[in-house]
Structures are given as structure tokens and as C-alpha cells.
Design brief:
Structural class: alpha+beta
Order of helices and strands: HHEEHEEEEEH
Helix content: 25-40%
Largest sheet: 7 strands, mixed
Distance between the termini: 12 Å
Number of strands: 7
Radius of gyration: 20 Å
Shape: globular
Length: 170
């Protein structure tokens, strides 16, 4: 192997090690930047929604979810089937403290953003993901409904996956 290839591989290894050893910290919502106090009763109801897979929270199964893998699911049943097809069962989700932001517009539309730790069960044990999540809710006939969710994996997870898959080549 020539010197340039060795240097390139060493740089790549150093870059991967640096990214995988850095502590993953979530961005904290800037204090005072957003109105987080209006509609206190609605805010309490929306913040109590911890399981978007509860069909009673979906208006006629009218939700759309964009997974961290980029796939789109039209309705809760379709999203749950995606997990089953991949051998996964949803287990839990927990917001990372200090990252959740709920904004309510005109008392009828809400957007919640957060960093979440998500756990799925699989035949090989639990699978853990840290995602940046955005959820949209609408209020109809006095009730809040989940209508859209989108998650994005943290880049450090993708580096770990690439590192695992490419380790034989290094």
C-alpha cells in the first residue's frame, strides 16, 4: 500500500473515532425565544400525549409519518406494519430533557419538536435510537389529534453504522 493510501485511511479512521467518541448532546431550546405559555390547557393535553400509536389520537387514521430511515407511512396501521416487517416492536420513547418545544398557533394547530430516545424490541434484543422528532397536531371538535410525525437519526448513529459496515475494508 502506498503512503498516500495509508495517510488517507489514517485520516478516515481518526475522523470516525473522533465522531464516535464525542458526547452526543442535544440542543437546548433558547430560553425566551418562543412563546411557550399561551394556551396552557391545550399545552397540558398535548404534552400528555406520549404514544402517537394510540389510534384514538389519529383523526380517522389520517396521519402521515416519515421515519428516520426516510420511509413514509400513511396511517398508524401502515407504520406499525413497517416495524413488524423489519422484525421490530415499538417499546418506548422518552424525550431528552430540555429539548422539547411545543408551539401552538391560533389554538388549533400545534408543532412539537424534541430529541427522543426510542427503543424497539427485536429478536436479537432491544434496538436503541436517538432521533430529532417533529410532530404536528390539529384540534377538531375540541380534541387534539396527531396528524404528522417526522424523525431524523443523529449523524453519530449513522457514522457508527458505516463504521461497523466498513470495518472489514479498513
Amino acid at each position: 500500500m502506498n503512503l498516500i493510501n495509508k495517510i488517507s485511511k489514517m485520516k478516515l479512521i481518526f475522523f470516525i473515532i473522533a465522531l464516535t467518541t464525542l458526547k452526543v448532546t442535544a440542543q437546548i431550546v433558547p430560553e425566551g425565544k418562543y412563546n411557550t405559555t399561551d394556551y396552557p390547557k391545550d399545552r397540558k393535553i398535548i404534552n400528555a400525549i406520549t404514544n402517537i400509536f394510540d389510534k384514538s389520537l389519529s383523526l380517522n387514521d389520517n396521519s402521515v409519518s416519515i421515519g428516520a430511515d426516510g420511509t413514509i407511512s400513511y396511517g398508524i396501521d401502515e407504520e406499525l406494519q413497517k416495524f413488524v416487517k423489519n422484525g421490530l416492536t415499538f417499546k418506548s420513547v422518552a424525550s431528552v430533557p430540555g429539548t422539547e418545544l411545543l408551539r401552538i398557533f391560533n389554538g388549533t394547530t400545534a408543532i412539537k419538536t424534541k430529541v427522543a430516545d426510542v427503543v424497539f424490541s427485536s429478536p436479537n434484543g432491544d434496538v436503541y435510537f436517538k432521533v430529532i422528532r417533529a410532530e404536528t397536531y390539529i384540534k377538531q371538535k375540541g380534541k387534539w389529534y396527531f396528524v404528522l410525525g417526522q424523525g431524523t437519526n443523529f449523524m453519530t448513529q449513522m457514522v457508527r453504522i458505516c463504521q461497523h459496515n466498513d470495518s472489514a475494508d479498513l
